[in-house]
Amino acid sequence: MVFPSEPFFCVLLLSSFLFVSPSQSAADYSILVYKGCAKQAFQDPNGVYSQAISALFGSLVSQSTKTKFFKTTAGTSQTTITGLFQCRGDLSNTDCYNCVSKLPILTDKLCGKTIAARIQLYGCYISYEVAGFAQISGMEMLYKTCGAKNLAGGGFEERRDTALSVMQNGVVSGHGYFATNYQSVYVLGQCEGDVGDSDCGECVKTAVQRAQVECGNAISGQIYLHKCFISYSYYANGVPRRSSSSSSSSNSISSGTGQNTGKTVAIIVGGAAGVGFLVICLLFARGLIKKHDDF
């Protein structure tokens, strides 16, 4: 879809945006990531465009209770407006609706009556454009953000790149959405719902390359291209558990090597710690008995 070149496209970047985490609560899905607003406003003396946008938004919101992606048009042949919404693949239908239902008001508040707009929240986005609006490449970067520099020690970039490679392959076999974790690195990728598997793979590949270049050794990063986005985050204490509000067990596939190894180590360490604690308790009790006998 949308926004051709920078002079015609205003983007608001929020540096305080929280990185994608598998443990975020449903309320966090409504956090604003960025806005994209065309600078040209509607010439709408009779209110026909306003009516078309209102009808478009109504249709999109109603569909968000049933699906995570929907694209449609509204208006007459003279006032055709195309719009779509998409929710993250790991959102439940309820969370998707709750996210999308906030977007029409936000769009009007942040962009006003512009001929094209895109509002990206943490868990969903909405976009629309009038017929004839200039198109851009699906690989065009709309937004990026990178976290703090790596403090994770040696080998971090190799672990991250391995996780991104797994995700890059997974998003194709997953038909547009994939999330996984590998050795404390959580990655997620998603393509727009009407993008084919082959084009999706190319889009995510480009996003991964941009992340490696733009974010360097940062421990987290997000790259939003026009037709796809990716995210990665490193968790020093291990990737947190998923929120119970999201129903996505079939979409989030953990890499066997990373997660199973982590679990094995945790069991061994935890077991050893438990045995050690028991021994200390026994020795302490033995000492008390010996002192009692001495009296």
TrEMBL record:
Annotated transmembrane regions: 265-285
CDD domains: Gnk2-like (cd23509)
Membrane topology: Single-pass type I membrane protein
GO cellular component, one term: plasma membrane
A matching Pfam family: Stress-antifung
Entry-linked PROSITE patterns: GNK2
Localization of this protein: Cell junction, Plasmodesma; Cell membrane
Signal peptide: 1-25
Record key words, sorted: Cell junction, Cell membrane, Disulfide bond, Host-virus interaction, Membrane, Repeat, Signal, Transmembrane, Transmembrane helix, Transport
GO process annotations (BP): plasmodesmata-mediated intercellular transport; transport of virus in multicellular host
Domain Gnk2-homologous: start-end pairs: 30-133, 138-237
Keyword Transmembrane recorded: yes
Family: Belongs to the cysteine-rich repeat secretory protein family. Plasmodesmata-located proteins (PDLD) subfamily.
Name assigned to this protein: ANTIFUNGAL PROTEIN GINKBILOBIN-2-LIKE
Species of origin: Salix koriyanagi
